[in-house]
Amino acid sequence: MKSAKFLLLILAGSALALTGCTTVNTVENAQKVGQRNMVTDQRVITDGSLSRKVSIVGVNSSQTPGGLLKVQVELLNRTRSRQAFLYRFEWFDLNGMQVENILSANIPDQIEGQESKFINGLAPTPSCHDFRVKFIEAD
Amino acid sequence: MKNKLLLPLIAAAAPLFFAGCATDAHYVQTGDKEQVVSLGQINIQDYANAANAAVKDLLASGALDKVANPPALLELSRIVNNTSQQVDTDLLTKKISIALLQSGKAQTKTVDAKATGYQQEAEFMNDQKTTRLPDFTLSGKIIETVDRAGSTRRTTYSFQLSLNDPKAGVQVWEGEKEIGKQGTRSSVGF
Fold first, then answer.
1. Where are the alpha helices (DSSP H) in chain B?
2. How far apart are CA B18 and CA B14, in angstroms?
3. What value does the mean pLDDT take over residues B25-54?
4. Is A30 within 8 Å of chain B by CB?
5. Chain B residues with CB inside 8 Å of A62's CB?
6. What pLDDT is recorded for position A122?
7. Residues of A in contact with B98 (CB under 8 A)
8. Which residue of chain B is at minimal alpha-carbon distance from A88?
9. For residue range A15-34, what is the model confidence (pLDDT) as tens digits?
């Protein structure tokens, strides 16, 4: 009787524990047609916890026909549970001066367990040549 | 006797406990980690996110670059509010028009009565029509959808925008951003 109750408790507990874990299976074409213009990046990690959970796989960039710099960052959730975070793009001109923009706000996002995901940003003006992306772990 | 000792202890601990919950007024940034997330209301960061997505999509589409005399002249049209709350749509459109003006890709037609008056006066004095018809108009709709399951409520706000070419009578760009919030009550933090 006691062991039956114990088993039920374990089952209920594991069901609760597994509720938060959802991982993602993916499929894609093996022979890629498009070529990504990868950017050599420089990283400053102050939040090791977030960096261990959601890591940056790579950064690539392109230009829109209108001459705006487009940046794409590939992220990978190394955990088995959903991770929420905020990100923010900052843009800089040829002189390294930050280009302030009304829309440069933190953007909330989330990534499922083991999921690979892209986030992208578009420079607010054609004068932007450099960028920086900041990531903050959500509570 | 035990109860007599326990009661003052609880009384002493209670203010300490509640002090941790109280927060003094302080300045915050729109969209920071402490943002208030309301279930039945569009928060300020929602407008910012919707405007951000719309501008990013619109600029990337290159629709504004296809005008004879750049930058494109844009006139803000009607944004229909189909939500249960009173919404000042300028919270959305102003952000978009500022961002487009900053990008150098578009200018918006003035809505200032004085500026329009001076322009009409100049046209009359010079006997010359200088009014430029807008290349595009921007219209849209904000829709609210509410789903419930027990005490859990999910509210989705759809921000739909269309860039219209008034000369050709066609929509040259359309964008939609959905912002969904789910929970049992509003909270602080993302």
1. 2-21, 44-61, 90-103, 113-126
2. 6
3. 88
4. no
5. none
6. 95
7. 102
8. B31
9. 545 556 778 888 888 888 88
Q: What is the pTM of this model?
A: 0.82
B52 neighbourhood in chain A, CB within 8 Å: 103, 105, 107
Q: Rounded mean pLDDT of B24-41? A: 83
A52, A82, A118, B33 from A41: Cα distances, Å:
18, 26, 16, 26
What is the distance in angstroms between the Cα of A134 and the nearest Cα belonging to chain B? 12
Regarding an ipTM greater than 0.85, the answer is no
Averaged pLDDT, groups of 10, chain A, 139 residues long: 62 54 86 86 82 92 94 96 93 95 86 95 95 90
Question: Across the interface, do A108 and B103 touch by the CB < 8 Å criterion?
Answer: no
| Distance between A3 CA and the closest CA of chain B, angstroms | 34
The two three-digit tokens of residue B152, written as one number: 């859990």
Query: CB–CB of B99 and A101 under 8 A?
Result: yes
Q: Confirm if A78 and A58 have CB atoms less than 8 A apart.
A: no
Report whether B190 contacts A135 (CB < 8 A).
no
- How distant, in Å, are the alpha carbons of B8, B14, B22 from that of B18? 16, 6, 7
Longest alpha-carbon distance in chain B: 99
Q: Which residues pair with A74 in a beta bridge?
A: A58, A118
Chain B residues with CB-CB distance to A70 below 8 A: 60
- Using CA coordinates, name the residue in chain A closest to B188: A139
More confident residue, B55 or B111: B55
Type of residue at A78: R
Residue pairs between chains A and B whose CB atoms are closer than 8 Å: 69
Question: How many whole angstroms from its chain centre is CA B190?
Answer: 18
